[in-house]
Amino acid sequence: MSTLRRWLLVTMIGLMLLGLPGAGFAQGATPVGGECVPNELDGTCLPIAPARDRVDRATPVFSNPTSIDNPLFPIGELESALLMGTVDDLPFRVEVTLLPITKTIEWNGQRVETLVSQYTAYLDGRIMEVALDWYAQADDGSVWYFGEDVFNYENGVVADTHGTWIAGQEGPAGMIMPGKPQVGDVYRPENLPGVVFEEVTVKDTGVTVDGPVGPVRDAIVVTELHADGTIEDKTFAPRYGEFLTSSGGDVEALALAVPRDGMASPLASELETLVAGAMVIGDDAMRGGWEQLAVTLASMNAAWSSYRATDVPHWLDAQMNDALAGLEAALAAVDPHRTRQAALDVQQAGLDLELRYLPVSQIDVARFDLWARQVAADAIAVDEPAMAGDVATMEWVWDRIAHLADDATVRDVEAHLAALREALEAGDVASATSAAARLQELVPRIDPR
């Protein structure tokens, strides 16, 4: 279940408890074919499709399960994806990263090796959810979902693990994409009523959508029925996978995916100017020198004006525009704390653009450094919940890049991460800031090649 879905479910449960209208539950649906999947909110039968329409009822065979090349769910070839949007009018961001590990899961008499993908979601710039998802491809080209480890965050700490499940323990694996989807096909990515449930119906195929860098043909549009009776539309596009999810006024859209949107040319010098300038302003904001900071910003604006004359992905273009406007306003207000945060926002936007040119591992190393800087920024504001979320984010990014470091560096990074968390849990902001600084010093030892 996506973050957007969980967020909407919590909202709907709240409406139900308050007795307010607008929850949109399915009421009194008649079971089809004798099966009744209960609505998790009111107990009525969900309006599931006839069993004859389902294409996920045969027993899949997995001869080479980690070779996932289904074009509409290419998780085996998708090194990293960035999704953006809004939830409750707040900025929403997702980083999806294929991890360099696999997980073997026993289901239906088979031991199936699965790929592991990390899904990290942020709401209004702060960590909201992390899920480790397990996928495998069957011999007929269909992709199967073997479950997920879910960590839902509130105020920077894990509030619960709702949505966690594993095939073979709670129930069956679920088909997440047929080998050759056709209009009218029905399948269940999650099929554990009472724990998780989704039923998908293919609504349209051969659709052309606007991709990050141009039209993308042969996409499909599906509708998803959820355990709470709500329905939402999703679009899946070749070489991108999940492309667009929308429900009400909320949206989760594919902003960039690599290698699909990668550039063969060297890193654009304008992006180097933007990221380096943001780091300089962030480092110097607490020391003043506002006239020189304004000069640095002017060079950054000039670089962006030059770069955005090229074909910049829509969501990334909007993100950088907003970040630079925020930095300009912070400098104009002569506000050091606000300026430092705005500089970090520009740095993140720049790294997202650099993802088109540089290896994912190199960007994640830079993100690790960025979140160490964020710890220091939040320490100045004595915002301990934000610092807790920063540390959690660093730990998850570290999981993406730890394999790049030698044993000594791994020991040092993990020791300082532990010290950072211990200091934070003890309420020792000064020690936490020092530990974050030491982690920054270790970043050059992590080889991103």
Question: What can you tell me about this protein's structure?
Answer:
The chain has 449 residues and is α+β, with helices and mostly antiparallel strands. The chain folds into two domains: 256 residues, no CATH class; 177 residues, no CATH class. It contains nine helices and 14 strands. Strands 1, 2, 3, 4, 5, 6, 7, 8, 9, 10, 11, 12, 13 and 14 form a 14-stranded antiparallel β-sheet that branches. A hairpin with a 2-residue loop joins strand 2 and strand 3. The chain is globular. 47% of the residues are buried.
Number of strands: 14
Strand content: 25-35%
Provide the succession of SSEs. Answer: HEEEEEEEEEEEEEEHHHHHHHH
Question: Radius of gyration from the CA trace?
Answer: 23 Å
Overall form: globular
What gap, in angstroms, lies between the N and C termini? 33 Å
Helices and strands, with pairings:
Blueprint (H helix, E strand, L loop, with lengths): L2 H16 L61 E8 L2 E18 L2 E14 L2 E12 L5 E12 L2 E4 L4 E2 L7 E4 L8 E7 L3 E16 L2 E13 L4 E7 L3 E7 L2 E9 L10 H16 L5 H18 L6 H19 L3 H19 L5 H21 L3 H18 L5 H19 L3 H14 L7
Antiparallel strand pairs: 1-2, 1-14, 2-3, 3-4, 4-5, 5-6, 5-7, 5-8, 9-10, 10-11, 11-12, 12-13, 13-14
Helix pairs in contact: 2-3, 2-5, 3-4, 4-5, 5-6, 6-7, 6-9, 7-8, 8-9
